[in-house]
Amino acid sequence: MTATLDAPQQPGSLKSSSGVSKLGDKIFGGVSKGAGILILVVLAAVAAFLIAQAIPTFTGETDKPFPQYVGPLIFGTIWSAFLALVIATPLAVAVALFTSHYAPRRLAAPLGWFIDLLAAVPSVVYGLWGSGVFAPVLARSVYPWLEDNLGFIPLFKGPASTSGRTMMTVALVLAVMILPIITAISREVFLQTPRLHEEASLALGATRWEMIRQSVLPYGRSGVISGAMLGLGRALGETMAVAIILSPANIITFNTISNQNPNTIAANIALKFPESAGINVNRLIATGLVLFVLTFFVNAIARRIARAGFSGAEG
Amino acid sequence: MNISSIRRRALAAAVVGTLVLAACGDDDDSSSETTAAGAATTGGATTTAGGTETTKGGSTTTTEGGTATTKGGSTTTTKGGSSTTAGGSGTTAPMKPVSGTLVGSGATSQAAAMQAWTVGFQETNPDATVQYDPVGSGGGRTAFLSGGADFAGSDAALNDEDFEKSKERCGDDGAIDLPHYISPIAIAYNLPGVDGLKLTPATTAGIFAGKITKWDDAAIKADNSGVELPDTAINPVHRSDESGTTQNFTDYLHATAPDVWSEEAAQAWPDSFGGEGAQGTSGVVAAIGAGEGSVGYADASQVGELGVAQIKVGSAFVELSAEAAAKAVEVSDKTPGRSQYDVSFKLNRTTTEAGVYPITLVSYHIVCLKYGDQAKADLVKAFMGYVGSSGGQEAAAKAAGSAPMTAELMKQVVTSVEQISAG
């Protein structure tokens, strides 16, 4: 195929002079647009399915009003994800800082790989490990101590569960699961800190920690937050680990070490769906719709915060 | 590069070819002869088509056709020169291997047994395939009623509403339930040093309702004189997922101790009674094993090393056994308002008969009495005939720990399966 030359271009014109590349542009542009539209269509189809299947819940007869049914589930979902985030984020930032600024080069890369390996473990395996190994260990040593010494805090009111399958265990396991996500993103962001900022800080006499506090952390703030929001999204939707580990009850409580814990939406669906029939299936899908909307909002908030810009770079 | 990649492909083809040839080899039919009529035997006895079948030395003979056999060396004969059919001994319909695909779905409790039944059935009907999807009883019933499945496995018989719906799918005769899977539910506990714990219905209800909180409570002590009970706290464990096991257990508690257990029977554990929740039978067993002083209810075949309580029935304490569980079905009334061929029961939890273990789960196979085409009807009839035969029931008992149907029950089921036809 020979490229044909058009008439000499007018100054200022940006049109391509080759027929081949015009076709390539068209095709690639079309494919990109198609891919974007396809994603939107899939998302819309999922939303339509959720809404269509959930509607009979509100028009039909269930044994419990829907808000009463889904209230403890929403609480459990947000509470477990929040606890996991609070535990995981400082740890992830610390690991990321160690990898990017403290560790010798030869240690940094393998450490990164091992952290990423945590993300490769299936969530069912986390559930079995948490329920079979981790929970009994916590139940033997940690929970009785918490109940005896810190029992005045509503979080540790007890009575401590003998099997350890509690909200605290779930939060710890979820924290381990979302750690690699937050760590990976934080590490990338910290490595992007402009060398000039770091050098300037050191030149002014700052210690390494002061340099990190002054130039790295502010620069990476929005990146860390967006990583944390990704982790939060995973924690909100985590199903099998919670279903296997948690001992659920239909209550709202801040007590994290007893065997009466609020269940999460996803785990509730996993537990109830196989034996459900009729309007109960619709009700479960309605809770799925609630989770969908919840995650949507969380992601929207995350985007807004992350787009707030590199506050450290600006000033 | 080219040659080595060709060599690699040739090696892969050789490996695949070897595996295919190995798989196509003869199946090992251990110690049994199959006849042209396709009857299978176990236990070393021979069946001949068109004649008498004899049992040697007291071994049990089972045929694919579902003859009721007796242990202890008696002879079973078939009359009329034909081999046995799903209808049981003495019927005259000829039995040839069926072919086709049988699609079923439903209860997860039957999943292990269903695998054994599939293998057993396909041994004598190599052209038939059985597919079972353990989506849960609710999903199975829905699939069956909509025509998506040929039969359903369900922990509960069809309720009246679904029975009316089945008339659309199966014709005016509707669908019938066959109690092919009887599984006792054990009350398992973790108390080192305590063997043979005895519990009355009121005590059991009190424990699981959270009213009785210590093992050395007066109520438990009263029934267990001579046993040293520790003052450990009781940790009652229940199923966190919906299940037929919970349905049957809460049905027992509500029927025998309604003043303590005020909630109706349900697949989901009632919110008002606390306790620890675990996912699945294996989760409950693991949870009981993990905490000393824990007690819970689970399918008897899965409790492993845990202690199992004896239940008071009438005036005696009954130990859990397959026979006692199967007897619980016999002392129960059939569901009213159904076809005469329906074999579903409203289990009698408050029976006082001797030797009955009332905490039993009965899982049914729901089939139409009339199917659209002959091939499908034959296929269903043959499979249900096998499942309901002693061979099928023994296979399930071995694979899943269920209780085989009693001879009396088997007779009823066999009569009903006989009625499956095309039309």
Name some characteristics of this structure.
heterodimer; A: 315 residues; mainly alpha; MetI-like fold; 2 domains; two-stranded parallel ribbon; flat; disordered C terminus; B: alpha/beta; D-Maltodextrin-Binding Protein, domain 2; nine-stranded mixed beta sheet; 12 helices
Q: Can you give a write-up of this model?
A:
The complex is a heterodimer of chains A (315) and B (423). The radius of gyration of chain A is 25 Å and the shape is flat. Helix content of chain A is 73%, strand content 1%. Chain A has 2 domains: 35 residues; 249 residues, MetI-like fold. In chain B, the strands form 4 sheets. In chain B, strands 1, 2, 3, 4, 6, 7, 8, 9 and 14 form a 9-stranded mixed beta sheet that branches. Chain B has a 3-stranded mixed beta sheet with strand order 5-10-11. The relative contact order of chain B is 0.16. Chain B is of the alpha/beta class and 423 residues long. Chain B contains 12 helices and 16 strands. Classes of the chains: A mainly alpha (315), B alpha/beta (423). Chains A and B meet through α4, β1 and α9 of A and α3, β7 and α8 of B.
The H-and-E topology of chain A, N to C, reads as HHHHHHHHEEHHH
Counted up, domains of chain B total 2
Determine the strand fraction of chain B and express it as a percent band: 15-25%
Termini separation of chain B comes to: 65 Å
What is the CATH superfamily classification of the largest domain in chain A?
MetI-like
User: CATH-wise, what's the superfamily of the largest domain in chain B?
Assistant: Periplasmic binding protein-like II
Number of domains of chain A: 2
Q: Provide the residue-averaged pLDDT of chain A.
A: 88
Number of helices of chain B: 12
**Backbone shape of chain A:** flat
**According to CATH, what is the class of the largest domain in chain A?**
Mainly Alpha
CATH level 3 topology of the largest domain in chain B: D-Maltodextrin-Binding Protein, domain 2
Summed over residues and divided by their number, the pLDDT of chain B gives a mean of 80
